[in-house]
Inverse folding.
């Protein structure tokens, strides 16, 4: 049974979810040697070219993105590095403005011309930042596709959703109209949108339905990597559980790699094996999801975790928990990039004097983990 | 005390698509929001929450039933709607779509006040609204355009736009869905503060049951155009009665219950099942094989908030 069939099958109440379904792959930490055998390769279903052995599917090195509008420069991503293997899942958390979307969209050069990008994005060994446009267009959809944040603005309002899902199939694969329509119908059913509504326009669907249509579209050409920017943010819990189940099946059974962006730590920890927490354009903490949630080493990860209420917990009843203060403004960010000091210092409850003067970078904070906090060096960062 | 906002037997039916039946997006709803009260409306995608929210602010004309503001039936002339919206503001779901890309932040927030002739000390009003919505310092943001901001920042502009009129009721459709947890906490705190200091009432539409736990007094659970369970937050979230509410709570990541992942045909308002509308997906009905569920219609729940929680189900009371 394929992942797509599974989601349509009548579900028994006790179907898997939660921590149990997080695939555990050894050697997944950034900067470490990895075993090339991921579950995806073992199943042999992924269609695209195999990378060189020992080369990760995606290797991002010192990625930097600055938006320039006249005089103003917004350093949105300020040096991000990570790797992702086939069939692996990386969650990217962080508050709005921390650069998650900018980072993700820059991987496939989907940003506006005002964005200045540097670093390397090696996909199967090939640098996408310097690749020719024709090559990049081939990679998009068929090798790596994106589920955009805000489904309404990403869908074309004057074309039916069926036409829009068929488009990449017809463009990238040698199939006829009929086969493309059949695939589109199958995809729609697989994400829980009745395929008989293929002739409807985006505005005729609810927000959640549109998001699922976007996911169906991203799967159209059976890519190896899906970059999903807040794919479940606007969804209710039931559909979110279904979408996570769907993405989880895809990872397990077809070996698709996923970079999933969300500000919701609980969603990421259930979906992704590894987690990167971004703050002000950099990775604040990275490592195995469950460890990061259970034992955060960076004060920001800790604050994020507390902000999700548990129903029934009297402490959070009529008492929402936020993080006091505001993220750095673009001008503060520009200053930070030049000087020293921790970007989180103004909001950090554990800051010491050195946090304002020392250079902070990602340091090992445990097996397969790193955190950008001075207290980790002291050994007191827990 | 009169509710500040009320709907009685509300129906909103969208005209049929070719070959299909009309979509009964809101199919008989009674609901009250009292002075200083925060009510959360929860339910899955497509169940009619946004349609109900839009009807509450007069953006959609009901096909049946009534909307009442401060006890008065809502009129649909341009003048009546304008007066009504001075006090009842809508905060929208999709911030990208809610903002005009060519309008800067100041003008977006000033739009409401200008429309209502509140141009006295407009700058002060706009900056105060921006700061309250968490865009601080306001001067840094006033000149920006939507594309120069992240999604969360855009949502704060939308909220500031509603706050600028100092309304007495806010109808907020997923006001924090696109915000990160720390900002979410701040915005929710803000809604609570506005309630405590100004007596602001709010109907908050959300798929996030944690939000209801964080800020709401009462909660209404909607399924396929109807409210299927309503009561205080403690009653509904800690002692849920309706099988649908129980399923929703069970799929939360922190839940101790075994997750009940509802599948089957996604609910379609153009084909509302007879009998209990939840019966094709109901785990309780499946277990009990009860024929009542398939054939006997359920009465519409009253909107009366004074009694204990109510559930629209043949088997639980
Ligand atoms: N303009 C329209 N024409 C026809 N059908 C519509 C229209 N707008 C909404 N619908 C349908 O009405 C139903 C209710 O939609 P609504 O937007 O109110 O849902 P919702 O509960 O807000 O969902 P979400 O949580 O996804 O935002 C859905 O089945 C939707 O497809
Ligand atoms: N097109 C743009 N022009 C200028 N600044 C932008 C643009 N897009 C985003 N930004 C800024 O870059 C930063 C990161 O934004 P974004 O990547 O959208 O964050 P996230 O996805 O984490 O919410 C923010 O300060 C935002 O205001
Ligand atoms: S380096 Fe200092 S300011 Fe930064 S997170 Fe660690 S303790 Fe806080
Ligand atoms: S009436 Fe029957 S089908 Fe409907 S919710 Fe109750 S048990 Fe389930
Ligand atoms: Mg984003
Ligand atoms: Mg909605």
């Amino acid at each position: 049974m394929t992942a797509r069939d599974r989601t349509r099958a009548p579900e028994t109440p006790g179907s898997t979810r939660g921590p149990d379904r997080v695939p555990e792959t050894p050697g997944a930490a950034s900067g470490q040697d990895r075993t090339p055998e991921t579950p995806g390769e073992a199943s042999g279903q992924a269609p695209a070219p195999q990378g060189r052995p020992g080369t990760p599917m995606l290797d991002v090195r010192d990625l930097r993105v600055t938006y320039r509008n006249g005089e103003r420069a917004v350093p949105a991503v300020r040096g991000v590095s990570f790797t992702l293997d086939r069939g692996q899942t990386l969650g990217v958390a962080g508050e709005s403005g921390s650069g998650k979307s900018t980072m993700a969209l820059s991987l496939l050069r989907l940003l506006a011309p005002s964005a200045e990008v540097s670093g390397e994005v090696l996909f199967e060994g090939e640098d996408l930042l310097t690749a020719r446009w024709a090559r990049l267009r081939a990679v998009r959809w068929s090798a790596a596709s994106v589920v955009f944040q805000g489904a309404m603005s990403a869908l074309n309002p004057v074309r039916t959703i069926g036409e829009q899902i068929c488009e990449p199939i017809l463009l990238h694969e040698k199939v006829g109209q009929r086969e493309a329509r059949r695939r589109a119908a199958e995809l729609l059913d697989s994400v829980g949108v009745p395929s008989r509504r293929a002739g409807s326009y985006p505005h005729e669907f609810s927000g959640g339905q549109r998001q699922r249509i976007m996911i169906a579209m991203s799967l159209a050409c059976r890519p190896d990597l899906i970059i999903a920017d807040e794919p479940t943010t606007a969804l209710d819990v039931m559909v979110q559980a279904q979408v996570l189940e769907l993405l989880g099946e895809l990872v397990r059974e077809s070996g698709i790699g996923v970079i999933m962006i969300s500000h919701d730590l609980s969603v990421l920890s259930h979906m992704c094996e590894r987690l990167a927490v971004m703050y002000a354009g950099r990775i604040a903490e990275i490592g195995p999801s469950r460890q990061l949630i259970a034992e955060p080493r960076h004060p920001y990860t800790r604050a994020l975790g507390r902000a999700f209420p548990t129903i029934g917990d009297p402490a959070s009843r009529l008492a929402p928990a936020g993080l006091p203060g505001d993220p750095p403004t673009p001008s503060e960010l520009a200053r930070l990039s030049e000087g020293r000091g921790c970007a989180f210092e103004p909001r950090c409850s554990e800051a010491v004097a050195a946090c304002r003067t020392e250079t902070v970078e990602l340091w090992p904070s445990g097996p397969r983990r790193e955190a950008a906090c001075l207290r980790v060096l002291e050994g007191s960062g827990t | 005390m009169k509710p500040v906002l009320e709907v009685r037997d509300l129906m909103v039916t969208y005209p049929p698509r070719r070959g299909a039946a009309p979509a009964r997006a809101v199919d008989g709803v009674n609901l009250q929001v009292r002075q200083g009260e925060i009510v959360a409306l929860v339910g899955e995608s497509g169940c009619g929450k946004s349609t109900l929210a839009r009807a509450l602010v007069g953006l959609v004309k009901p096909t049946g039933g009534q909307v009442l503001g401060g006890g008065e039936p809502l009129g649909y002339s341009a003048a009546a709607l304008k007066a009504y919206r001075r006090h009842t503001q809508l905060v929208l779901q999709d911030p990208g779509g809610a903002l005009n890309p060519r309008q800067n932040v100041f003008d977006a927030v000033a739009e409401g006040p200008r429309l209502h002739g509140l141009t006295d000390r407009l700058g002060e009003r706009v900056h105060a609204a921006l700061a309250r919505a968490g865009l601080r310092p306001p001067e840094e943001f006033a000149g920006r355009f939507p594309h120069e901001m992240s999604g969360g920042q855009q949502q704060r502009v939308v909220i500031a736009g509603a706050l600028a009129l100092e309304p007495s009721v806010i109808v907020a459709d997923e006001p924090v869905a696109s915000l990160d947890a720390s900002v979410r906490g701040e915005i929710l705190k803000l809604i609570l503060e506005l309630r405590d200091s100004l007596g602001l009432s709010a109907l908050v539409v959300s798929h996030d049951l944690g939000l209801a736990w964080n800020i709401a007094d009462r909660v209404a659970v909607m399924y396929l155009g109807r409210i299927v369970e309503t009561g205080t937050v403690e009653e509904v979230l800690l002692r849920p009665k309706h099988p649908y509410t129980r399923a929703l709570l069970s799929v939360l990541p922190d839940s101790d219950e075994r997750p009940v992942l509802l599948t089957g045909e996604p609910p379609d308002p153009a084909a509302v099942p007879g009998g209990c509308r939840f019966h094709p997906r109901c785990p309780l009905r499946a277990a009990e094989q009860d024929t009542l569920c398939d054939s006997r219609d359920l009465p519409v729940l009253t909107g009366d908030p004074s009694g204990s929680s109510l559930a629209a189900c043949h088997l639980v009371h």
Summary: The longest helix of chain B spans residues 181-198. Chain B touches chain A through 63 residues (CB under 8 Å). Chain B has 13 helices and eleven strands. The two ends of chain B are 27 Å apart (CA to CA).
